[in-house]
Sequence to fold (191 residues):
Amino acid sequence: MSSSPLVFGVYAQQSSPSGSGHLLLQLRTWLPVLACSMVFAVESTAFFGADRTSAPLQQIAEAIFGYGIGVHWELIHHLIRKTGHFMGYGIFSLVCFRAFWFTSQQVAARLPRQLRAHGLAILATFLVASADEFHQSFLPNRTGQFSDVLLDTCGAAVLGLLLFLAMLAVERRRQTRTRTVRRLEPARAAA
Fold:
């Protein structure tokens, strides 16, 4: 599958840069991964434990939905936190996919480029989630749970699958337009 212009057209590499251009390209490629990792590092502190986030989130929820929400707050708070895990690490996986996509642009390998980038993104997500949960196991008000690592990895797989399907749809649409233009060219030339 070629690089989708809809998803990656802005960042398409025209030629192989050298020197400072290569360094700038690498920085532009991997800086979003580093930024996401820094967000995880900040969120993985004692300050963002469930015991500290519950009250402020409950106040916001009660302001929006009313005080009746307090009856089910423990379940709602749990779902908010787990949804945050799923989506946060899913987005991290997409950012990793983008970085691996550009990094492996000129690498000759047996696996197709898209499959390689998705696999590496999911592996990176698993490793970062594992490190995050391991770190949390040392904090007094946090727990490191392998189930959260699995949830994070599932978020990576699901959002990766959605990206794959979106890229596939864009590629098919591009191929359909190309075939249509090729069929119309002889008719235009004859006219």
Observations:
- The longest helix spans residues 146-190.
- The chain has one domain: 18-190.
- The mean pLDDT is 86.
